[in-house]
């Protein structure tokens, strides 16, 4: 049954969320089952306010810039929706003759996608999720669009930081990375060695309980052997029992504003070991950097957007487009559909085989898994010593 299609963004932007948007719009424009292609301006909140834009007649030269634009070109949100809001969505969908809904986002958005699907099922409205998260913590899919570019940023920036510290070896620098409960992005710092001879000396992940005494022993050994170095730590580090090592500034629902973990660890080194230390925190700079965008990530994001249109217009609903690797010596991924109930609010953490026995570093197995997602080889940084 023909009808209009709408695309919504949810959660934090990435370097390739607009690539999925581009793929979905272009595929929908050419789909005989779609009358008009619509976008919600400002996520679910914008949709509830009926901030809806028709992009059906946009030509490719008007849209192609989405592939190289950071953040969300239509606006996103972190709206905390309850049953009344989901119920209110259905009349709006009917009013605008919307037959197909695509929701592009991470864990929270896939939860929203599943709940909206439950409301829409009896009304014959199809709902499909498009994966997106820099944190790479979505279940079922091999990886999520958005992660590869953020990982490339972390790996490249860590290499540059290591280069700086080796050039002026007078301190220990702590680099704090994003990652609430999963250490995928933190682990990506290990790929700095693809760019520079020296990579991070220590890496701490939220998959392991933080042990302050062990951390100080690790850093003391680093100081005694090298006299300088780079430590990478996740913003989500916590003690046994789950208490964050730095009290969050505030928490609203799933949104947690962590304290400065990097600064806390640098201060520990200064106070407890009496050694010079400083902290760096890319924060939002690494979330949607186009200069570090991975072409592999961009292409897969576009493909997921197109696959979502094909799925929903073919009658699929209550699913999320996911990626799986095709066996072989050359990296290749294909899309498939995952039941949204398998994805909703299920966090995928770094497996044990990707973490070293000491819990302060990353294995070669992770590097081999992650490397193709970064796209083209990282630039080589010189060291003449």
Helix content: 25-40%
Kindly, what is the distance between the CA atoms of the first and last residues, rounded to a whole number of angstroms? Answer: 68 Å
Q: What's the Cα radius of gyration?
A: 22 Å
Average per-residue pLDDT, rounded, comes to: 96
Q: Can you tell me the CATH class of the largest domain? A: Alpha Beta
In what range is the share of β-strand residues?
15-25%
Spans of at least 5 consecutive residues whose pLDDT stays below 50 are none
**What is the assembly state of the chains in this entry?**
single chain
CATH topology of the largest domain: Rossmann fold
Largest sheet: 7 strands, mixed
Task: Provide the structure class.
Answer: alpha/beta
| Count of helical stretches | 12
Number of separate strands:
13
CATH architecture of the largest domain: 3-Layer(aba) Sandwich
The strand order across the widest sheet is 3-2-1-4-5-12-13
**Order of helices and strands, N to C?**
EHEHEHHEHEHEHEHEEEHEHEEHH
- Give the CA-based shape: elongated
List its traits.
alpha/beta; 7-stranded mixed beta sheet; about 35% helix; about 375 residues; Rossmann fold; 2 domains; 4-stranded parallel beta sheet
Task: Give structural notes.
This protein is 34% helix and 18% strand. The model has no long low-confidence stretch (mean pLDDT 96). It is of the alpha/beta class and 385 residues long. It starts with a strand and ends in a 15-residue tail after the last helix. The chain has a seven-stranded mixed sheet with strand order 3-2-1-4-5-12-13, with helices on both faces. It folds into two domains: 3-134 and 291-343, 3-Layer(aba) Sandwich (Rossmann fold); 153-286 and 351-374, Phosphofructokinase domain (Rossmann fold), CATH 3.40.50. It is built from twelve helices and 13 strands. The radius of gyration is 22 Å and the shape is elongated. Helix 4 (83-95) crosses helix 5.
């Amino acid at each position: 049954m023909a009808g209009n299609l709408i695309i919504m963004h949810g959660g934090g932007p990435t370097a390739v969320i607009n690539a999925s948007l581009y793929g979905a719009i272009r595929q929908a424009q050419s789909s005989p089952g779609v009358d008009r292609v619509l976008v919600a301006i400002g996520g679910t909140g914008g949709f509830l306010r009926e901030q809806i834009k028709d992009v059906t007649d946009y030509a490719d030269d008007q849209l192609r810039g989405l592939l190289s634009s950071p953040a969300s070109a239509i606006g996103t949100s972190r709206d905390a929706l309850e049953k009344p809001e989901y119920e209110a969505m259905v009349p709006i969908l009917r009013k605008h003759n919307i037959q197909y809904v695509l929701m592009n986002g991470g864990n929270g958005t896939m939860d929203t996608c599943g709940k909206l699907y439950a409301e829409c099922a009896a009304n014959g409205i199809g709902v499909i999720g498009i994966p997106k998260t820099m944190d790479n913590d979505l279940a079922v899919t091999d990886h999520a669009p958005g992660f590869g570019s953020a990982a490339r940023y972390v790996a490249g920036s860590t290499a540059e930081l290591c280069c700086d510290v080796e050039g002026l070896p007078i301190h220990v620098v702590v680099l704090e990375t994003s990652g609430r409960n999963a250490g995928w992005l933190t682990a990506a710092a290990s790929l700095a060695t693809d760019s520079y001879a020296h990579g991070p000396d220590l890496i701490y992940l939220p998959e392991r309980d933080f042990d302050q005494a062990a951390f100080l022993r690790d850093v003391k050994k680093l100081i005694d052997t090298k006299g300088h170095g780079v430590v990478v730590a996740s913003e989500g580090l916590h003690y046994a029992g789950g208490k964050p090592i730095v009290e969050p500034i505030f928490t609203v629902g799933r949104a947690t504003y962590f304290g400065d973990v990097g600064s806390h660890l640098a201060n520990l080194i200064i106070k407890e070991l009496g050694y010079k230390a400083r902290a760096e925190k890319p924060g939002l700079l690494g979330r949607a950097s186009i200069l570090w965008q991975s072409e592999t990530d961009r292409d897969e994001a576009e493909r997921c957007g197109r696959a979502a249109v094909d799925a929903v217009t073919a009658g699929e609903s209550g699913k999320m487009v996911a990626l799986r690797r095709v066996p072989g010596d050359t990296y290749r991924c294909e899309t498939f559909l995952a039941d949204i109930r398998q994805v909703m609010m299920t966090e995928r953490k770094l497996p044990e085989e990707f973490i070293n026995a000491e819990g302060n570093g990353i294995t070669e197995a992770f590097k081999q898994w992650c490397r193709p997602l970064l796209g083209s080889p990282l630039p080589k940084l010189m060291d003449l010593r």
